[in-house]
């Protein structure tokens, strides 16, 4: 897990990506920014942590059909399983955030404009360590 990028101690209903907001220009950033305002037109202000919208709309999507090269995690001894990658425009922030779809959702299940929500997910498991992340799940599939 990348510390500070999302909540991790709460249940699925409370799961949120975490960003930062500049108090001077109100720009929101994800991944978070803790040093300076990334808005080139801003003189800078204090950056505060903000939970981002849980839901958004599919802006674009594709599938990953190749094994990534080193240094990415990819065990050549295991069978490669394709994954679905989404670009999602968050509802309130009007920013696009990338992430994988929940397991079982393929590009055939998606359409541009479809509503999705951020849920906790697993990126990788290695020697007893679980690397957590977020996944996007179609809202129609929820509950």
Automatic annotation (TrEMBL):
Q: Which SUPFAM superfamilies match?
A: Nucleic acid-binding proteins
| PANTHER family named among the record's database cross-references | BLR3430 PROTEIN
Specify the domain of life of the species encoding this protein: Bacteria
Segments forming domain ChsH2 rubredoxin-like zinc ribbon: 12-47
Tell me, what's a Pfam family for it? zf-ChsH2
User: What InterPro entries has UniProt attached to this entry?
Assistant: ChsH2_Znr (IPR022002), NA-bd_OB-fold (IPR012340), Thioester_dehydratase-like (IPR052513)
| Originating organism | Streptomyces jumonjinensis
Q: What is this protein called?
A: Benzoylsuccinyl-CoA thiolase
């Amino acid at each position: 897990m990348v510390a500070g990028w999302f909540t991790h101690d709460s249940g699925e209903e409370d799961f949120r990506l975490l960003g930062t907001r500049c108090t001077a220009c109100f720009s929101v950033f994800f991944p978070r920014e803790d040093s300076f305002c990334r808005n080139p037109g801003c003189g800078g202000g204090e950056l505060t942590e903000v939970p981002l919208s849980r839901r958004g709309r599919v802006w674009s999507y594709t599938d990953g059909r190749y094994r990534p090269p080193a240094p990415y995690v990819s065990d050549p001894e295991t069978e490669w399983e394709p994954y679905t990658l989404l670009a999602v425009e968050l509802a309130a922030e009007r920013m696009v955030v990338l992430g994988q779809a929940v397991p079982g959702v393929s590009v055939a299940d998606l359409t541009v404009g479809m509503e999705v929500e951020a849920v906790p997910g697993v990126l990788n498991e290695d020697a007893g360590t679980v690397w957590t992340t977020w996944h996007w799940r179609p809202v129609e599939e929820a509950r």
